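Bumping my old thread because nobody answered last time. Still need a sequence for this structure:
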């Protein structure tokens, strides 16, 4: 089993070495080394080294094998593909509109019912398979990024960690804001008494940044736009709850959750740089009906 990737060299990499190309595309050093040692690099179908100089229009081919990756094989059990809504797809990745109440991924090997199980069934006729990159909490809806081969998984991970993949959320929360926009910067760690939760300023807290903008405000509720600058577990839910604005319907952090039909948190937009490219795209997930009804 192997995966072959051929990239046409763009003008910004004219006269670059193959090594520079691999670095620019954010391939981990370990994989770069394995491509070099395995002699699995070609330019215009001629064997190449990392020192080979390429020109605009050249075809650089890389051949990847399972030992290049920590998780080379996607083993999610196929489930029904009914209801899958694809917002964007190319040969390397897709963005799916995840419904609220559906788990992002299974926790056990034979488990089904998650969005990745549904995508395994959806992709089965094409011979492709889903690889986990970006998680959404079970009760959160909206745009979720999924890789379609193991080659782009480490690249997408690095794009996320370097903030070249940007996530925007909408949430209905309790209470009124005194400012139209701002930032929550409370560090987040494990809750001291409840292992299911996270909380601010705990012993093991790590830095966390969330920007907010008030879109609409009523007497006791607000629709806010949220931009993640970091990616801590439950970050949005904790930042809002700890600052007096729990997300409506949050089973862990909203004392009035039983009065709301769902967690009112939706991943409305993904802005990302495509792997092996300088192209930037923005993918939007339409607001669910219950969000629109509240507006």
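Sorry it took so long. Here it is:
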């Amino acid at each position: 089993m192997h995966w072959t990737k051929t990239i046409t060299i763009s003008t910004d990499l004219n006269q670059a070495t193959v090594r520079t190309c691999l670095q620019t595309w954010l391939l981990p050093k370990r994989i770069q080394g394995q491509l070099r040692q395995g002699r699995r690099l070609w330019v215009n179908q001629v064997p190449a080294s990392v020192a080979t100089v390429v020109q605009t229009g050249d075809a650089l081919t890389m051949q990847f094998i399972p030992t290049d990756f920590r998780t080379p094989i996607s083993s999610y059990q196929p489930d029904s593909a009914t209801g899958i809504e694809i917002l964007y797809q190319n040969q390397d990745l897709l963005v799916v509109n995840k419904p609220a109440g559906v788990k992002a991924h299974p926790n056990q090997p034979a488990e089904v019912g998650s969005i990745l199980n549904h995508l395994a069934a959806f992709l089965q006729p094409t011979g492709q398979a889903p690889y986990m990159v970006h998680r959404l909490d079970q009760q959160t809806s909206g745009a979720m990024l999924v890789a379609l081969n193991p080659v782009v998984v480490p690249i997408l991970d690095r794009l996320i960690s370097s903030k070249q993949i940007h996530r925007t959320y909408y949430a209905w929360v309790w209470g009124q804001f005194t400012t139209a926009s701002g930032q929550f910067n409370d560090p987040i760690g494990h809750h001291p008494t409840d292992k299911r939760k996270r909380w601010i300023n705990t012993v093991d807290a790590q830095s966390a940044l969330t920007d907010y903008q008030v879109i609409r405000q009523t007497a006791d509720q607000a629709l806010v736009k949220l931009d993640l600058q970091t990616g801590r577990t439950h970050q949005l839910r904790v930042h809002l709850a700890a600052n007096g604005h729990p997300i409506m319907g949050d089973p862990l952090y909203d004392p009035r959750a039983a009065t709301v039909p769902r967690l009112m948190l939706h991943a409305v937009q993904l802005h990302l740089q495509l792997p092996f490219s300088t192209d930037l795209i923005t993918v939007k997930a339409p607001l669910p009906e219950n969000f629109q009804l509240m507006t």
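The two ends are 51 Å apart (CA to CA). Let me know if any region looks off to you.
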